[in-house]
Amino acid sequence: MSSIPRDQWYVAAYTAEIGRELFSRTICGDPILFWRTEAGEITAHADRCVHRRFPLSRAPSRLVGDTVVCGYHGFTYGADGRCVAVPGQTRVPRTARLAQYPVVEQDSLVWVWIGDPALADPGRIPRASYLDSPGWTTVRGMEPLAARYSLLVDNLLDLSHETYLHGGYIGTPEVAATPISTEVDDDAGIVYVSRHMADAECPPFYERSTGLSGRISRWQDIEYTPPCLYKLHSRIAPVGSVPDPDGSDPDAFHVEVVYAITPETEHSTHDFWLVARDFALDDEDVSAFLAEQNRTVVLQDVAALDVLEQVIATEPPGYQELSVNIDTGGLAARRMLARMAGAVPAERAVPAR
Amino acid sequence: MSSIPRDQWYVAAYTAEIGRELFSRTICGDPILFWRTEAGEITAHADRCVHRRFPLSRAPSRLVGDTVVCGYHGFTYGADGRCVAVPGQTRVPRTARLAQYPVVEQDSLVWVWIGDPALADPGRIPRASYLDSPGWTTVRGMEPLAARYSLLVDNLLDLSHETYLHGGYIGTPEVAATPISTEVDDDAGIVYVSRHMADAECPPFYERSTGLSGRISRWQDIEYTPPCLYKLHSRIAPVGSVPDPDGSDPDAFHVEVVYAITPETEHSTHDFWLVARDFALDDEDVSAFLAEQNRTVVLQDVAALDVLEQVIATEPPGYQELSVNIDTGGLAARRMLARMAGAVPAERAVPAR
Amino acid sequence: MSSIPRDQWYVAAYTAEIGRELFSRTICGDPILFWRTEAGEITAHADRCVHRRFPLSRAPSRLVGDTVVCGYHGFTYGADGRCVAVPGQTRVPRTARLAQYPVVEQDSLVWVWIGDPALADPGRIPRASYLDSPGWTTVRGMEPLAARYSLLVDNLLDLSHETYLHGGYIGTPEVAATPISTEVDDDAGIVYVSRHMADAECPPFYERSTGLSGRISRWQDIEYTPPCLYKLHSRIAPVGSVPDPDGSDPDAFHVEVVYAITPETEHSTHDFWLVARDFALDDEDVSAFLAEQNRTVVLQDVAALDVLEQVIATEPPGYQELSVNIDTGGLAARRMLARMAGAVPAERAVPAR
C-alpha cells in the first residue's frame, strides 16, 4: 500500500513557474499538466492524452490559445479538459476529457488536490502569508530529492542534525545540546516542536544576514501541517531580549523558513524551500547570501537523504531504528501521516465501546 | 504471458549485415548468432556456448573456417551447430550442440523462424520483391526502439500522426483530415488501411524527391502482415491522375515504404525501415535525401514511442485508452497479434455450437 | 534463498587498506565499517547508525580518537560498538550499539566472520603465509566484479580457459589440452585440481619474470578452500626438472597465485588477487611486470564474467549447462558451497538408516 496520503493538498510549483508554456510535474505519482489561460487562470490536468497516452507537455504538443494540441495525433483539449477535436472525424466522443485537478494559487504557491475532487476544500490549505506580503522579502528554490518524502519529514522535524550535517552554515553545538518541547494538535492536524536557546553561538547564516555577532538568543519554533507544509519560525535576538507583552518584538530578527514536502513518487520528492525575512528587505546582498546558503544546506540534506534511501533499498526487511527524545516530533508526524495514508484509519484510532 | 507471437518469421537483419564476422542480434528475447559459411550460407544458432553460457559472438570467440571457437574454454562448433571439440578430452558429448534457427534470405532481408523449427514454412514469409529488384532503388536503416513492438504497430497503422509528429517532413493537414478505409483479411492474415487524398499539399519528402510541386494526388495503401512486415504503398501524382485500366501508371511516382517490426525483448524493438522508389533510380542526391529524411522521421517516432513505453511503465494498472475511427486498422492488427500470441486462441474465437 | 554461505570467514580487505580513516566495504550484503584504534587494532562494525541508518563511513561522519561520530545527528560510538553519546539528552539507551564483526589480521589479509559471532573460530581461517613472509615478494590488487561469486569460482577451478581467454598472457595450447586430476577432501573442506605439463610452451607471464625461454615443465596445483580462499601453486622449471626427494627444488621458480573470492552482494564480488614469488625478490621491474600482467588477466576474467551475469539475468528459467571432465573441480566446489549455503544440509547428505 502506498505511504503517500491522498485526498490532500500539495504544493506543485511556485506561481511564477506556470505561464503560457506547457509545464509538467509529477505529484504523488500523477503526471500533471499545468498552463495558464489567456485570462491568467492556472489549469491542472492529467498529462496524458486520452487516445494513446502521449504526454501533452511534450513537444511537439503545443498550446494554441486556450487549447492544448497533442503532438502525436492532434487530439485537442480546452481549459476544462474536454476534448474539442480529433483527427479524421468531426464527432468528438463525449468521454474524451482529461482528468482535472483542483488547483489554488495562494501565498506564491500553486496547490493541487490529489484525490477525490469532490472532497477538495481550499479552506483547508495551510497559510504562509508572509511568503507574499509587504514587509517581508523571500528567497526560494526547489531541489529534487531521490528519497521518499518521509525521510525529509524526519529530517526537518529534528533540527539537532544542524549541528553535524550543517556545521559552519546553520548548526552550532547548542542546537544538538538543547532539549526540545513537542506538542501535537490532532484536531488541527499540526505538530509543534520548539527549541529556545537563550545564549547560543550565532551561526554564519544569521551572523552575516542580521549583522548580529557574538552570543545570541535563538528560537526555533516548528509548525508542521502534514503532509506538505513545514514552517520554521526562527527568532534571532541579542541575549536577554524577549518580545514585548503586546507581541511586538523590535530588537529581534524574524526569519520564516518554509518547506513544501511534495512526494513525486514513492521514492522521490520535490523539496521546495523558502526563506522569508522581516529585515534588510531591499538588500540584495543579503538575499543572494541567504539563497546561496540555504540552497547549500538543502543540498547537504539531499545528499544525506539520497544515501538513506539507498540504505533502505538494500537493508533486510524488519530493520528497526532506535529513537530518542529528539525524535518525539518526527514520530508524532509519522503517526499523523500513517493515519492520513490509511495505514491507521482515523475512525479506528478511537477505541470502540 | 508474453505478448510476442512465436512460431513466426521475423526479420533479423539485412543480408549485407551478415558476412564472415560473428554477428549477434536478440530476436524475441533469444540471442542469436549469425555468420556466413565459406560457401556463403547464413547460419543462425543460439548465441550461447552449451558449456558455461559464454556468448559465441563475443571476443575472443572467433570464426575459424566453418567453425566457431568459444572465447572462454574453446568449445568449437560447426555450421550445423554440432560441437566438434572440447578442451581436455577427445570425446565430444553427443548432446553438445547449439540450437539452430531456420533462416531464409529473401528480398534483401534475413528472416529467422522463432519457435518450433518443425513448423517453419518458408513459403509463408511475406514478400517485398521491389526491395531487391531492377527498376527500383532502395535506401534503408534500422533504429533501436526502447519500446514494445505493439507501440510501433499502433504508430504505423495510423498515419494521421504524420500531420503532428512529422509536420515539415511527410505530414500535411490532409493526412489527419482524410478518413481511412480499413479491410481485414483474416485468412491471409493481412490488415489493409487506405487513405486516398485527391487534392493535397505535397510534403517536402515527396516534393524534393519527385520534383512535383503544388497540389498532388496522394495515396497511402497500407498492407500489414503481422507480426513483422509492414508495407506502405505510396502513390504520388498530379491532381486528377489515375492509373490506366491496364494497371500502368506512367504519370505517378511510386514509393514503397517498408518496415520490419521485430521484437528484441518484451520492451524493445528493432525498427527496420526501407524506402524503395521507381524513379530517379540512379540519382544519389535523391537517395541521400530520402535516407536522411526517413531516418529523421523514424527517430521522431522512436522518441515518441520511447516516451510511451515509460508512460506505460509508471501508469496504474487497468488504464484504458480511448479509440476513434483512425484506430480501426490498429485495433484489427492488435486482435490478430493477440491471437498469434495465444491470448485469444484462434480455435476459441469461433463460438462452439 | 541466498547462495552465499554465512557462518564463514571472508577476506574483507588488505591490512594496508585499514588505517585511521573510516573505511567501508560491503561483504555478503552487509555494509561494514572498518577503522584502526589508536593502538592499531582493527574494528569491524555495521556501517549504519542505530538511530536513522546514516552510514558511519560517510562524511561528515568522522573518527575522533577511538570514537566514531555520526555525521547526521552526532550519535557517537566507541571501538566496541557501544553508543557513548546522543544529542539532546545525557542518558544513552542501553540497546544503542553497533553490531560487531569478528575480525582477524593474518597473512596481510583482513578476515571478517559473516554470521553468528559465537561460531567464529580464527583457527579455521585458511593460511597463505608466503603472502607475508621473508623469501617471498608479493604484488596484489582487487577488481570489482559485477557477477555472482560462483562464476569466479567456476572460472578459477577450470584453468583450461587460460588458453582462450588469456592467450598471449598466461595461456598456451597445453593448458587446455592437458587433462587434470581432481581430489576432494570433504573433511578438510578443500578441492584440489592438478595439471602437470611436462613439456610446454612458456607463456610471456613466466618467460619475462623467470628468464626461462623455450619449452618448460609447468605445474598448476590448485588448492581451493571454499568459500573464499583460492591458491594456485605454480611451478615453472626447465623440462625434466623435478623437486629433490627432500622437497627442495633449486632449479624451479615458484609462484603462488592467490585469489580471495568475496561476495559483495548476490550479484557482485570483490575479486582480490595476489601473486607471490620466491625469485627476483628485489627486482622492481619483475614486480611491476607481474602486477600489470596479472591485473590485465583479471580484467579479462572480469569482462567475461560480467557478460555471463548478464546472460543469466536474461535467460529463461531452467537453463541447463553441459559439463565435461575439466569441470570436475568446479562441480565439486559447487557442491561444497551449496552445502555451506544450506541448499544441501550436511547432515542430510548422509543417508539415514
TrEMBL record, chains A, B, C:
Source domain of life: Bacteria
Residue intervals of the Rieske domain: 9-112
InterPro entries: Cholesterol_7-desaturase (IPR050584), Rieske_2Fe-2S (IPR017941), Rieske_2Fe-2S_sf (IPR036922), VanA_C_cat (IPR044043)
Molecular function GO labels: dioxygenase activity
Record key words, sorted: 2Fe-2S, Dioxygenase, Iron, Iron-sulfur, Metal-binding, Oxidoreductase
Protein name (record): Aromatic ring-hydroxylating dioxygenase subunit alpha
Taxonomic lineage from the root: Bacteria, Bacillati, Actinomycetota, Actinomycetes, Pseudonocardiales
